[in-house]
Design goal:
The protein is 26% helix and 20% strand. The chain is of the alpha+beta class. The protein has one domain.
Length: 94
């Protein structure tokens, strides 16, 4: 099981988890959020990177979920200016 970070061409990120560590799995990001940030021309040549942030062969689902949340908060990928995670809810400090 892994926690990973996807980085899009605009620099925004998405943090996700995968119980099976499937190489070709790129998360369940809201595709409408990502699509809204790119023009049709920008979509013609589109590359993303996937980086493993945490890996465990002995962890459980609870630990995996906790590690995902910790990385989302640490990287602030739930801030719409930084990333595409929408959970946990981001609250701007005034």
């Amino acid at each position: 099981m892994i926690v990973y970070k996807i980085t899009y061409p605009n620099g925004k990120i998405y943090v996700g988890k995968d119980e099976t560590d499937t190489l070709t799995y790129f998360g369940s990001v809201d595709s409408n959020l990502v699509a809204a940030d790119f023009t049709e021309t920008e979509r013609d040549n589109f590359s993303i990177t996937k980086e493993t942030l945490w890996r465990s062969v002995t962890g459980n689902k609870i630990e995996l979920a906790e590690m995902e949340k910790n990385h989302i908060l640490r990287l602030k990928s739930n801030d719409p200016d930084i990333g595409y995670n929408r959970w946990p809810k981001f609250a701007r400090v005034k």
